[in-house]
Amino acid sequence: MVADKDRAIRTLINGLQGKITVNGVPYDGAMPALKLSNEEVANVLSYVLNSFGNQAGYVRPEDVGRVRAPTIQ
Questions:
Q1: Cα(15)–Cα(11) distance, rounded to whole angstroms?
Q2: Residues 6+ away with beta carbon under 8 Å from 53
Q3: Measured between alpha carbons, how far is 1 from 12 in angstroms, rounded to an integer?
């Protein structure tokens, strides 16, 4: 997630299902899409990106809006 903030944003707003590999460890599960505002998504990701030993900067609500815009129907 640290390497690709846009992917992290898409995962929170659209959810994720199926097999993925993270740092060489396979996972197979589902994360539902979360109905969060742009500010809430930015706050969650900024927390994760700067916790658990991470130092990856911040996500702004404007970043979330830019990623979310093409998915609005």
A1: 5
A2: none
A3: 11
Q: Which residues contact 71 (CB under 8 A, 6 or more apart)?
A: 10, 13, 14
And the tokens for 2? Answer: 């640290």
Q: 11-32 pLDDT, tens per residue?
A: 999 999 999 998 899 999 999 9
Q: For residue 23, give the nearest of 49, 3, 51 by alpha carbon.
A: 3
Average pLDDT of the residues of the chain: 88
What is d(CA 27, CA 16) in angstroms, rounded to the nearest whole number?
11
Question: Position of tokens 């742009």?
Answer: 38
pTM of the entire predicted model? 0.79
